[in-house]
Inverse folding.
């Protein structure tokens, strides 16, 4: 046998190693990716898939469920946290319940923010404020009246791992 053209597998076979021993050798000699994966290599170790959202998050027929085990939404398990999903602002209120309201200020459509310190929503554009019931707490600093925010129903699953928002 010509040693200059001897492949690694041919060399190992010449040593009398079995096929399984050859595979073990390859696994040790390579990055391990072809021979199985480690738990820390799993991009989604919690078992959730996709973007953590199932359903419709925009438009007139909003109905979706969030996977609170997903990295994007896990923070919503903590009181005082909030997320915007499609057209909806979801807040885990400081009183421990969930609120879901339109994210768009009824004045000129600016995206609202949840304020955990006061447990309400505020508009950064002209200062309007809304209660979690959707009621206008303070109108725009430019004057005039604005309508209440649309409120959605937010229901936490019994195991606390998913939140369903419906119209
Ligand atoms: S857009 Fe929100 S107060 Fe004007």
């Amino acid at each position: 046998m010509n040693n200059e053209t001897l492949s690694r597998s041919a060399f190992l076979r010449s040593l009398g190693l079995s096929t399984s021993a050859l595979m073990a050798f390859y696994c040790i000699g390579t990055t391990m990716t072809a021979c199985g994966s480690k738990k820390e290599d799993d991009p989604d170790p919690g078992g959730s898939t996709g973007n953590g959202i199932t359903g419709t998050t925009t438009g007139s027929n909003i109905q979706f469920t969030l996977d609170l085990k997903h990295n994007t939404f896990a923070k919503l398990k903590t009181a005082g946290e909030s997320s915007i999903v499609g057209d909806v602002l979801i807040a885990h209120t400081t009183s421990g319940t969930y609120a879901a309201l339109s994210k768009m200020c009824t004045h000129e459509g600016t995206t609202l923010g949840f304020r955990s310190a006061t447990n309400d929503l505020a508009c950064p554009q002209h200062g309007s404020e809304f209660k979690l019931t959707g009621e206008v707490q303070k109108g725009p600093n430019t004057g005039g009246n604005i309508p209440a925010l649309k409120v959605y129903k937010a229901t936490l699953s019994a195991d606390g791992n998913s939140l369903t928002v419906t119209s």
Observations:
- The domain at 53-166 is CATH 2.102.10.10 (Rieske Iron-sulfur Protein).
- The chain has a mean pLDDT of 81.
